[in-house]
Amino acid sequence: MRAQRPDGFRYSHPKGTFMARRKKIYEGKAKILYEGPEPGTIVQYFKDDATAFNAEKRDVIEGKGVLNNRLSEFFMTGLNSVGVPTHFIRRLNMREQLVRSCEIIPLEIIVRNYAAGSLSKRLGIEEGTQLPRPIVEYCFKDDALGDPLVTEEHIAAFGWATQQDMDDVLSLALRVNDFMSGVMLAVGIRLVDFKIEIGRVYDGDFQRLVIADEISPDSCRLWDIETGQKLDKDVFRRDLGSLTDAYSEVARRLGVLPKNSATVSKPTLIN
Length: 271
Ligand code: UDP
Description:
By secondary structure, the chain is of the alpha+beta class. It has helices spanning 64-81, 117-123, 152-157, 163-185, 234-237, 243-253; strands spanning 9-11, 18-20, 24-27, 31-35, 41-46, 49-52, 57-60, 88-91, 96-100, 103-104, 107-114, 130-140, 149-150, 189-203, 206-212, 220-224.
């Protein structure tokens, strides 16, 4: 057996290739974060695990991680190209992407165009009702508390973000909404609502905010405009059919993946 390299790589494959022994920084419900190859970078690995209702419902959906890696790359690259800064650097492989490490503001930032989910429950508005204008909500990121809805008063009082941060958060959230709504509309999909996370990066003495985490059908509500068919994680939450089929349909319409390629996971014999 070969000696372990001091830089953390270990030779483990019999043919002499070596695999990185990476340091795991964090494992969440749908992703694992590893230390990146350069300082200030992180590798995001997309798992196939699906959870809902604060992880009370869980399953493994083959191919979901591959689709979300691709879809998040597509949205983040598009946002970067219209001048909305994100943490995304580049996709590394089927399940991994390289991102800039940032200090996550502990808020889930939700933007809604149509009533659905918790807003419909809370205010008794029928799902699908168009809202008079986009509504931005903030939830405190804390699984043990069930990510409670908070106001800017809580955010300022507890020092989760400054007023300047919150002005920038609101403007970024609305820019993401405009971009995502347009992209989805072009392929016949209604962006009902979505969740983003925002982080701080430091360039020398300056701090700026970037869109972080992921943007995928796990964190958006996407309805077919013609039929109303759900093409997002509600398919899993509400047992509406195959989640991979729904996400593949979104990817196919956006030209991100050719039909069915995400569901092929094993070599198959061709006669
Ligand atoms: N959302 C999310 N993660 C969460 C909570 C919500 O990605 O922990 C997304 C959800 O997929 C939807 C939007 O945020 O697109 C609004 O969710 P809502 O508040 O209606 O909560 P839910 O009905 O999912 O409990």
